[in-house]
């Protein structure tokens, strides 16, 4: 998506939006954290860490967390929120040069794959830094929901531009689920689990219309857990 960090201009607004909002706090984050499992005593890489909401919860569960984000302001917010972690500004288009091979137990990569141009190269770097027996947990927009919103061919891999309800203007990739699975395979992963999450019941009163829609339609996100292919 180019060298400019799209979220930098509204990083503080995003933190307020995602901290307790339906889609993030009661839908995506719980799904990813469930797939990560027990993190106590483990080293977790938070790829595209945003303002630190995942990192904060991981540290509270006993993990050692390091992370990065393309947005300098997001990294500032993350450092403020999680002072015990190690965070830096980094573009996923570049190698993770500061991390040695087999240096982390788990990687969480939430709602950011769609902003990466060379996704296989980025996923290979995440595979490289994972220890044997580790796992990658990633989430992405549900491709069926993307297709229902934007039309055209479900199977086309294309960039779209969209203005979200808060006026945030974003560009990102649309791709079918098949493409994401193939990119994981090409990067050296095996798919272990796939979740089409539903929001947590306690969120029913936050925004009832969205809650009910997410409980019946594939219009939100999905989450995957992938493990390094031991043959590669």
Automatic annotation (TrEMBL):
User: What keywords would UniProt list here?
Assistant: Methyltransferase, Transferase
User: Pfam families this protein is in?
Assistant: Methyltransf_11
List, alphabetically, the InterPro entries matched: Methyltransf_11 (IPR013216), SAM-dependent_MTases_sf (IPR029063)
Q: Where does the record place the Methyltransferase type domain? A: 45-138
Which top-level group of life is the source organism from? Answer: Bacteria
Question: Which terms in the Gene Ontology molecular function aspect does this entry carry?
Answer: S-adenosylmethionine-dependent methyltransferase activity
List all membrane-crossing ranges: none
Gene Ontology biological-process annotations: methylation
Q: State what protein this is by name.
A: Methyltransferase family protein
């Amino acid at each position: 998506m180019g060298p400019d960090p799209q979220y930098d201009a509204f990083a503080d607004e995003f933190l307020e939006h995602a901290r307790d909002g339906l889609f993030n706090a009661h839908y995506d984050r719980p799904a990813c954290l469930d797939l990560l499992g027990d993190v106590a005593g483990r080293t977790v890489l938070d790829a595209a860490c945003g303002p630190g909401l995942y990192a904060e919860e991981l540290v509270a569960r006993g993990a050692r967390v390091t992370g990065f984000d393309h947005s300098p302001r997001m990294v500032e917010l993350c450092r403020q929120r999680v002072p015990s972690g190690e965070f830096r500004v980094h573009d996923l288009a570049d190698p993770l040069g500061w991390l040695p091979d087999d240096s982390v137990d788990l990687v969480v990569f939430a709602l950011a794959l769609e902003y990466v141009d060379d996704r296989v190269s980025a996923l290979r770097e995440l595979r490289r830094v994972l220890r044997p027996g580790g796992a990658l947990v990633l989430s992405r927009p549900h491709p069926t929901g993307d297709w229902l919103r934007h039309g055209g061919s479900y199977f086309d891999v294309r960039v779209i531009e969209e203005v979200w309800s808060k006026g945030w203007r974003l560009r990102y990739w649309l791709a079918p689920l098949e493409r994401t699975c193939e990119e994981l395979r090409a990067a050296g992963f095996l798919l272990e689990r796939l979740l089409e999450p539903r929001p947590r019941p306690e969120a029913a009163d936050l925004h009832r219309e969205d809650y009910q829609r997410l409980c019946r339609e594939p219009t939100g996100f999905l989450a995957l857990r992938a493990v390094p292919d031991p043959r590669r």
